[in-house]
Amino acid sequence: NEKNAPKDFPQLKNDTFLRAARGEQTQHVPVWCMRQAGRYLPEFREFRAGKDFFDTCRSPEACCELTLQPLRRFDFDASIIFSDILVVPQAMGMEVQMVPGKGPTFPDPLKDPEDLQRLKTKVDVQKELDYVFKAITLTRHKIEGKVPLIGFTGAPWTLMSYMIEGSGSKTFSKVKSWLYRYPEVSHMLLKRLTDVIVDYLLGQVAAGAQALQVFESHAGILGPVEFKAFCLPYLRDIARRVKDQLKETGQDVPMIVFAKDAHYGLEDLSQSYYDVVSLDWTIDPRLAREQTGGKVSLQGNMDPCALYAPKERISEIVKTMLEGFGTQRYIANLGHGMYPDMDPESVAAFVEAVHKHSRQMNKQQ
Ligand code: 1CP
């Protein structure tokens, strides 16, 4: 079976991120940034110039290069494969375009329950998303063991919201109306997305991903009741099924869940088979520790806009954040992705501050 054949990857030199994810002791707090590959980097803008976004996603060489770019500049403890969450709806048969200035756009979104018939009934994930698996394998080689490589997916609810809204939205009233008008069809769609996502994540691990993050970026547009009905069961199902399958071959790959703005869901998320719960910036670190009861590692959650502050201020903000979370079972990150107008120098200051303050705090203990 070619899929599971050993690929002779270079040996990992920095396992701090994986140790923190598994709840093992670390000398310093590991750090990476969501959207660390992005338009705030001049080399990213130059490389992407004139190329279609999803063409770039389909080129393993391009994805590898864009994944490596931030690692050449910053002392990050992890990397995340360059791709997008919307490759999954594409694999299910939907068309998605990246419209410059507008973001991802579905020319023909799902409008009625009958539109589910437009989706492929059987999705051959190995074939449809082979280009992502190739990108991961290539990047694992080219990264030379510097840091671990994270694979990722969008979560079912977030993907469903794009498939029905057709793009980002202020109110999400179209997709939310499905939950209230067609709850059963909504569950059918979420279940089908879940099945594809499980195969997709397992394929990413087989290709070389050393950790997995599940992005439920639109969790916060639901209240706690709808979250429990339409997000949580699928998030749990994904982690349980992926973990169970990996266990059969003696593998254990840390899994991270990022349910943005789902503050009411922290306790449930900490009991959902994930190793790490990633937090947006609206959550108090100490409260998050209380609600997750030390059962999981935490990741996050500096306000991305704090990167607009002067360097000395960034250092202070990081110190306060570390005091809140503590230096163990913790992965420093932003509370959401970077913005294109951010200064790369500020990212360097953020990374340095995490490493410096956490080393000092560990010595004092
Ligand atoms: O042309 C460009 O470069 C466009 C910007 C861009 C980038 C750099 C998009 C369009 N996607 C990406 C890459 C990407 N997307 C990564 C790669 C690696 C990294 O983080 O360094 C990841 C993990 C994603 C995941 C993603 N895509 C999410 C989940 C995370 C989040 O931000 O909440 C979402 C919601 C998307 C959809 C998407 N893709 C791109 C944009 C601008 C958006 C958001 C649109 C919206 O607001 O609805």
Question: Can you offer a commentary on this structure?
Answer:
Helix 14 links the parallel strand 8 and strand 9. By secondary structure, this protein is of the alpha/beta class. It is 47% helix and 11% strand. The strands form two sheets. Strands 1-4-5-6-7-8-9 form a seven-stranded parallel β-sheet, sandwiched between helices. Strands 2-3 form a two-stranded antiparallel ribbon. Bound molecules: coproporphyrinogen I. One of its GO terms (biological process) is protoporphyrinogen IX biosynthetic process. It catalyses: uroporphyrinogen I + 4 H(+) = coproporphyrinogen I + 4 CO2; uroporphyrinogen III + 4 H(+) = coproporphyrinogen III + 4 CO2. One of its GO terms (molecular function) is uroporphyrinogen decarboxylase activity.
What string gives the helices and strands in order?
Answer: HHHHEHEEHHEHHHEHEHEHEHEH
Q: In what order do the strands lie side by side in the largest sheet? A: 1-4-5-6-7-8-9
Largest sheet, in brief, is: 7 strands, parallel
Structural class: alpha/beta
Give the distinct bound molecules: coproporphyrinogen I
Distance between the termini: 49 Å
Ranges where pLDDT stays below 50 over 5 or more residues in a row are none
Strand content: 5-15%
Mean pLDDT: 97
The number of helices is: 15
Rg for CA atoms? 20 Å
- Percent helix: 40-55%
List how many beta strands DSSP finds.
Answer: 9
**Shape assignment:** globular
Organism: Gadus morhua (Atlantic cod)
GO molecular function: uroporphyrinogen decarboxylase activity
InterPro entries: UROD/MetE-like_sf, Uroporphyrinogen_deCO2ase_HemE, Uroporphyrinogen_deCOase
Enzyme class: lyase
